[in-house]
Fold this sequence. Notes:
- It is a single chain.
- By secondary structure, the protein is of the alpha/beta class.
- About 25% of the residues lie in helices and about 15% in strands.
- It has 11 helices and 12 strands.
- It has a 7-stranded parallel sheet, with helices on one face. A 5-stranded parallel sheet has the order 2-1-3-4-5.
- The model has no long low-confidence stretch (mean pLDDT about 95).
Amino acid sequence: xxxxxxxxxxxxxxxxxxxxxxxxxxxxxxxxxxxxxxxxxxxxxxxxxxxxxxxxxxxxxxxxxxxxxxxxxxxxxxxxxxxxxxxxxxxxxxxxxxxxxxxxxxxxxxxxxxxxxxxxxxxxxxxxxxxxxxxxxxxxxxxxxxxxxxxxxxxxxxxxxxxxxxxxxxxxxxxxxxxxxxxxxxxxxxxxxxxxxxxxxxxxxxxxxxxxxxxxxxxxxxxxxxxxxxxxxxxxxxxxxxxxxxxxxxxxxxxxxxxxxxxxxxxxxxxxxxxxxxxxxxxxxxxxxxxxxxxxxxxxxxxxxxxxxxxxxxxxxxxxxxxxxxxxxxxxxxx
Length: 335
């Protein structure tokens, strides 16, 4: 029997979703409490840790640990030095890539067509039309998507799904990644470049998607140099991590119309039980900008299931069935 110690309290709906799909030889183990001492009580015979909590004492207490499973994609909060010291194999989950991609495309459409802005204006009776001798703070004209030029910084699971969804609009794609390589399946309307080539090619791009992991090398990567290289009407879409964009430079680029707009799902400040209502930044009033679509880190939420758990379930079943694990994180690259 494979024993899986849950290290983060899950919602009952999550637990039911997992249990309904598990191999019969996989057993979930729920501690009495989820602090370090509570987890250590059950650690000795755990084959897998499922959740985001790790510590040296917990690893010391695990006598037969085979791997740790993160039931989400982002791993920027992991202590990679700790993992290296204990030689722990860690996997994450990319199975929500499709729904996150849908959200990214929806935000792109909203920003391009100004749907949220016009909705807000119509609710106060403003049709935002062009009349003689009247100026409009926001142009009533939308941005065309068909035939547009799409830039993607990072080409992981989510970006690949976005690209597949947008191919029907006859877009062309420039992909900026560590390798600069494009899988053959994506065809002739895709070009690959290394990330450091972005600023030399950005001026003709209409939309730019960010799909890179947050690491030491990508924190604040998208800064004023990138914004100055982009077209003044280009739209930036971020479903990566907020911190990959330099916060002050993003606000400056939007406030001073250095780019056309942005649509963002990940931010610089988040609510917590003690402070449940907060703006997305404590330093800059992003919420006052009309050329920005604000999304409350909602891309992975769908009412048809829990897709972020599917890869985690697959790996638990893979272990029980002696199959290879998927999405094993590189402790060297930290993603």
